[in-house]
Amino acid sequence: MMGHSHHAPPSQLIMARSKWNRKRKAEERAAKSGKDPRDKADVNAAGYKLNQDYSVAKTSNPRMEAYYSLLGLHSTRFDAGAAASFVPCLADEEKTAERDRFMSSLRAILPASFRIDRSLDASVQNKLIREMKEFVGKETEVEIELPTRSDAVGGKMNLMNTADAQSDTAPQHVGGDNPVVTTIKRKIAPAKPIPFISATESDGSTLTLGYQLSVDRRTLRRNPSLSPLHEWLKTHTDCGHITRQETVSMIPPVVLDVKPGMAVLDMCAAPGSKTCQLVEVVGGFANRDESDGNDGESGRRCLEPDGYVIANDADAKRAYMLVTQLRRLQSPSVFVTSCDGQYFPILDAKDDRGTEKEGMFHRVLCDVPCSGDGTVRKNPGIWRHWNQNGALALHPLQLSIALRGARVTRLNGYMVYSTCSMNPMENESVVAELLRITNGSLVLEDPRPRMEGLIARPGWSTWKVLREEKRGSAKAKKDHKKKNNDCQEEGVGRKEENGECHSPPKERQDPNNAEEDHEEISERSPYHTLPYIAPESWDETTLRERTTSLGFVEYNSHADVEPEWRRRVRASCFPPTEVEAKEFQLHKCLRCLPHDMDTGGFFVALFKKIKPLSRDATERMNQMARESRGGIEVDAHVNREGGNRVENNDVDSACNVDKSDDTINGENDVTMIEESEVEQTGDEPKNNCDNLEPHHAAMEEEEEELVQKAPSGKVGMNHNKQKKKTDLSNEDFIPLEESIWPPIVDQFGLSPDFPKEQYMARASGEAKVLYFISKAIKEQLIDRGIQNRITVINSGLKAFERCSIQDARAKYRISQEGVQFVVPHMTKRLLVATADDFYKCITGGFIEFNVLSKIKDLEPGSFVVALEGHEHDLMKKLFLVMWKRKNALECFVTKVEIDGIVSKLRALGFVSPMASTLMDSSSHSIAPAADESGAVQ
Ligand SMILES: C[S@@+](CC[C@H](N)C(=O)[O-])C[C@H]1O[C@@H](n2cnc3c(N)ncnc32)[C@H](O)[C@@H]1O
């Protein structure tokens, strides 16, 4: 997957192009507004424009605030006292104070956080932890920016960390006569540990691997006193040692309690921060002795993990983003797929006798698409677009994905359901309905005992159900109108999911209905510009008057819901009965609110599967999938008499069932409206709930490149229809032709135990790349025909690449990405170098022969250099893929990988390039640890 380091990456061209695009767009915007695009003085630290009306609209939403006030979001507060628990707010003042804490946190910039890779070599990991301790422990003076304008609630707009409410120094105004930003100086410790992101050492001690910064990324960039930390973060992010990830986003993988060797499904994985976290553990090694690094039999360390993670996302373009994100880990334990999670193929486990048992995944993560109102701190567009109906629209999709997740979880396995929404329509109501449908197969578990230092509120057992009168963005209206017109041309009303058309709801027939043009409303409506004022009284009547005046409709039960709204406000949106509530124990769910830990808002539920799903539950699952597909029988092969057992043998994944054209084209009217409404929840709708911070601008460019490379026919939600079940298309992993091997085996002297069957290609004939596929993935997924049922985007590591260089004898060279899986089998062209020589090889450019003088006799072509003393330490991967030309040597390792290798060398004590101080000064040339042909002795 990696490009060659010494050639200009094609992504540079794309980077230039997209920079140009951004500039052009900024200029166009500026031309419209009559402003100079370079004028940045009116943009505050959060990136919000400080035009008063705009900032008011952006950091306040009276409908959202009124909704959550009525729902009782501010009725409990955290009591940090001895019991450290949540207690009810009894007096109105307490509720007001709690609400203010919540609101000022929502308006504060989200502090950045990150975690150290759990799967890193212990020496590197310890070094990073030691370095981090410096940053955690040492207070340093920083300049923090604050805007001077008052915000919508009439108080100071708090754009700094909520913990830093008071300034230490007198504010300095910037921005001339009309100051828009003040700066204050404060002494802070730049980071604090996240206690629940940790690893336990074999001696029982705990290593903290997660850290939350006290400042946002802009402050980090701008303060010279923080530049050591900033540089540290950049370097280690680039080489994959750390991942920047929101604190709350780290919770689900920890709650899932994954272990090395497990089969894990990440149902909605892109952009992949949680997947990385899962792979770091699952791709590790269980019950292996770390100390000697040998597996005894072959004398070489067995490196191949037994576990794997399937990283799936319905959106193929986003699945390609996953590939980029996961590439940094260079793990063979990932299988990236693209399929609508509602129809994820039913994969079951086989026991020793070959009998199928329900579900094959030890762990399933359903981090479902959601309205993302918990991410408003970093997605300020949500302030403007928040819409209760969007949450209602997502509810059935979320439920359907979770049901599928429950089905593929194995007995005694665990499933986590999570959202970055605070809305019970997307959280507790989905969990309750899941428990209702599965009727005893799933139970909720409380993960708190395992989550040291986590401050999470209990899940709710009851809530109010409301919808909004206003519906749809301008786009939704347009799409919707168009469809209705199509239907009306047919002489009927709106097209229903089963393909029939029915009359539109009354409010849409009213030509004077304000809903007809959302944009117009936002100009006319006072609610979009007027500040929210905290309620004078917190009694329910006052709060209800407020929601009603803002256009909400509240229901006591599903029976009260108007017929035309019943598909949106479903029975499952309503809270459980008292008897159910007792049984469900929804308080075990985790509700993270922004002001409790200075994070985003988040929701997590942990389920244990204790029984197979009943026939009824399976039928409901299929029914929901059918509904979502517009009434098409997705599981038509299911034998209704046979129940689960027959479905277990399902070969035709619903993913591949062809749909009639009109469903493929999205002519499911309800779905289309729902998607549009979901879209209006943020400026970047699909990213509303991503908690991943792009770790490097270059990475974004690379993603763009990858997306462009996405094979046609695999992009989009409906791509599966294009795959034929029996067709091994070019993009599938296929076994290699036997004729490919003899020259490779000969050139590198591959030993007889070299597992040829684990090398696959994605094209027949002389494939460009030969991938190393882990045994577990090959046997459990590929050999079982998963590629016939689902679109596979990526898996394995590049082990060999076809040579384009003329002076090569063999057609393939070794690739740095998978070199550690080839090295144990190489008896030729593997050289051992001292640290000095090793360093010389990675300093770039062409290397003179006199550096590696002992390889003079080696024929031109690909070879590998191993660091002396680490030849068999496959985990550390201190190997360099090199190329011998007639007169020089070349290192085929990317800059990012070299940074990683240098960092490992430093952790091992080699403090600087040419660090002979720490080495035996007698060993300054390449060691002759190879025989005539270059084989290691
Ligand atoms: C909350 S984001 C996932 C974030 C991700 N787990 C992470 O930690 O980086 C939801 C993802 O679900 C995907 N998605 C939306 N509908 C889906 C569906 N029906 N099945 C599977 N994935 C879906 C979206 O493309 C989006 O990438």
From TrEMBL:
<feature type="region of interest" description="Disordered">
    <location>
        <begin position="470"/>
        <end position="533"/>
    </location>
</feature>
<feature type="domain" description="SAM-dependent MTase RsmB/NOP-type">
    <location>
        <begin position="172"/>
        <end position="610"/>
    </location>
</feature>
<dbReference type="InterPro" id="IPR057285">
    <property type="entry name" value="Pre-PUA_NSUN2"/>
</dbReference>
<dbReference type="InterPro" id="IPR023267">
    <property type="entry name" value="RCMT"/>
</dbReference>
<dbReference type="InterPro" id="IPR049560">
    <property type="entry name" value="MeTrfase_RsmB-F_NOP2_cat"/>
</dbReference>
<dbReference type="Pfam" id="PF01189">
    <property type="entry name" value="Methyltr_RsmB-F"/>
</dbReference>
<comment type="similarity">
    <text>Belongs to the class I-like SAM-binding methyltransferase superfamily. RsmB/NOP family.</text>
</comment>
<dbReference type="GO" id="GO:0000049">
    <property type="term" value="F:tRNA binding"/>
</dbReference>
<feature type="binding site">
    <location>
        <position position="367"/>
    </location>
    <ligand>
        <name>S-adenosyl-L-methionine</name>
    </ligand>
</feature>
<feature type="binding site">
    <location>
        <position position="313"/>
    </location>
    <ligand>
        <name>S-adenosyl-L-methionine</name>
    </ligand>
</feature>
<dbReference type="GO" id="GO:0005634">
    <property type="term" value="C:nucleus"/>
</dbReference>
<dbReference type="GO" id="GO:0008168">
    <property type="term" value="F:methyltransferase activity"/>
</dbReference>
<keyword id="KW-0694">RNA-binding</keyword>
<feature type="region of interest" description="Disordered">
    <location>
        <begin position="1"/>
        <end position="44"/>
    </location>
</feature>
<feature type="compositionally biased region" description="Basic and acidic residues">
    <location>
        <begin position="491"/>
        <end position="510"/>
    </location>
</feature>
<feature type="compositionally biased region" description="Basic and acidic residues">
    <location>
        <begin position="25"/>
        <end position="42"/>
    </location>
</feature>
<feature type="binding site">
    <location>
        <begin position="268"/>
        <end position="274"/>
    </location>
    <ligand>
        <name>S-adenosyl-L-methionine</name>
    </ligand>
</feature>
<dbReference type="InterPro" id="IPR001678">
    <property type="entry name" value="MeTrfase_RsmB-F_NOP2_dom"/>
</dbReference>
<keyword id="KW-0489">Methyltransferase</keyword>
<keyword id="KW-0539">Nucleus</keyword>
<feature type="active site" description="Nucleophile">
    <location>
        <position position="420"/>
    </location>
</feature>
<keyword id="KW-0949">S-adenosyl-L-methionine</keyword>
<dbReference type="InterPro" id="IPR029063">
    <property type="entry name" value="SAM-dependent_MTases_sf"/>
</dbReference>
<feature type="binding site">
    <location>
        <position position="340"/>
    </location>
    <ligand>
        <name>S-adenosyl-L-methionine</name>
    </ligand>
</feature>
<feature type="region of interest" description="Disordered">
    <location>
        <begin position="642"/>
        <end position="665"/>
    </location>
</feature>
<dbReference type="InterPro" id="IPR023270">
    <property type="entry name" value="RCMT_NCL1"/>
</dbReference>
<dbReference type="GO" id="GO:0030488">
    <property type="term" value="P:tRNA methylation"/>
</dbReference>
<keyword id="KW-0808">Transferase</keyword>
<keyword id="KW-0819">tRNA processing</keyword>
<keyword id="KW-0820">tRNA-binding</keyword>
<dbReference type="Pfam" id="PF25376">
    <property type="entry name" value="Pre-PUA_NSUN2"/>
</dbReference>
<protein>
    <recommendedName>
        <fullName>SAM-dependent MTase RsmB/NOP-type domain-containing protein</fullName>
    </recommendedName>
</protein>
<feature type="compositionally biased region" description="Basic residues">
    <location>
        <begin position="473"/>
        <end position="483"/>
    </location>
</feature>
